[in-house]
Each structure stands twice: as structure tokens, then as C-alpha cells.
Write a structure and sequence with these properties.
This protein is mainly alpha-helical. It has helices at about 15-35, 45-50, 55-60, 65-85, 95-115, 115-125, 135-150, 155-165, 170-180, 185-190. It comes from Phytohabitans aurantiacus.
């Protein structure tokens, strides 16, 4: 007879059913608030009230508004990552590194434009959280690998940070709202930044 499974060191513990339900209720409440009033309306108290749970539960689950908003962005991030890690070329594997890099930066521009409001509020709450989160680390690694293949004479890790630096919501908000640039105009300008 088999005994209970022991946890593996470094492996995430499975989420309890009630914790998973609460997490989903919190994320749904935050998404509803954004749809109704914009991302600036998302506070821990407002989300707790809308979800019908205690504010302490929201804080224990997410810690602060920034982490809650980044969790809300997670599903979109997963789709974006799947596209550049396993999707069809030129964004996915199978195209030369320079073509993949260009396709990636164009797709990233679209991604930032689509998620700009939520990203702006999340970045305002915690400006450096972006650099420590899984999505940024995955993008940085991906760009570094492409640069290492395309430009072995450069430091790919530093160059990857510099290429990703402009992809913040505040700049894209300025370009699309204040300057009234289209996504295609932004992508044409991005092509001028490509080191390959």
C-alpha cells in the first residue's frame, strides 16, 4: 500500500481548493473593477469588498496591489510566452535569431499596448518589481539567447536589458496617447534599435 506523497524540495506545494477558489475570486473581482472603473480603482479594500471576502485574505494572498495586478497579467503573459517559446516562426523557433528578435520586440510592443493600463498601475505601485518577476526574467533570457547567437561579440545579458528597457507602460502610454503614434509606427522605430 502506497503512503502519502512527500513534497519534493524546491517544488511548489499544490494549492488547497479553498485557496484556489479565493485566488480566483480575488482575480475576478480585480478584473471587474478594472473593466468598470479602470486600473486605478484597484485597491486591496475595493477588491476584498467586490469579492466578498476579508481584506486580510487579499493581503495574505497577494501582499500588495502591485503583486495582485501582476498576477492578473499572468494569463496574458503565459499566452505571450507560449507564442515566443513554442509558437510558429518567426516569433517562435525555426527562424534566424535576428528575425526572431525583431518579431519578439514587435510582439512585445503589441503586448505592452494591450496591457498598458494594468501595467502602468502595477509599475507605479512597485517600479522595480518588473525586474524580479518571472515574465521579465523569461523575456530577458530569451532575448539574451537570441543576441548571443546573432551578436557573439557583444555582452548579451546587458544588451538584452537595454533592449527591454523601453518596453514600460509609461513610455508606451506617452507614445500612443500623447504622441498619438500607432503600433506600426512604434514598431518601425523599434527596428532602428535592433543591434543585428
Amino acid at each position: 500500500m502506497a503512503g502519502p506523497e512527500l513534497p519534493v524540495s524546491g517544488q511548489e506545494q499544490p494549492e488547497r481548493a479553498d485557496a484556489a477558489r479565493n485566488r480566483q475570486r480575488i482575480l475576478c473581482a480585480a478584473a471587474e473593477l478594472i473593466a468598470a472603473q479602470g486600473a486605478q480603482a484597484v485597491t486591496m479594500n475595493a477588491v476584498a469588498h467586490r469579492a466578498g471576502i476579508g481584506v486580510g485574505t487579499v493581503y495574505r494572498r497577494f501582499g500588495d496591489v502591485s503583486k495582485l495586478l501582476f498576477a492578473l497579467l499572468d494569463e496574458s503573459e503565459k499566452r505571450f510566452q507560449a507564442a515566443f517559446l513554442t509558437g510558429p516562426p518567426p516569433l517562435g523557433p525555426g527562424a534566424p535569431p535576428a528575425e526572431r528578435l525583431r518579431a519578439f520586440l514587435h510582439a512585445l510592443a503589441d503586448h505592452v499596448i494591450d496591457q498598458c493600463e494594468i501595467m502602468r498601475v502595477a509599475e507605479k505601485a512597485s517600479p522595480i518589481a518588473r525586474y524580479h518577476g518571472g515574465p521579465y526574467l523569461t523575456m530577458h533570457t530569451h532575448v539574451s539567447v537570441l543576441l548571443r547567437e546573432a551578436r557573439p561579440d557583444r555582452d548579451p545579458a546587458v544588451l538584452a536589458h537595454l533592449l527591454l528597457a523601453p518596453f514600460v507602460s509609461s513610455l508606451f502610454d506617452h507614445l500612443t496617447v500623447d504622441r498619438r503614434l500607432t503600433a506600426d509606427e512604434i514598431k518601425a522605430a523599434i527596428d532602428g534599435l535592433l543591434p543585428v
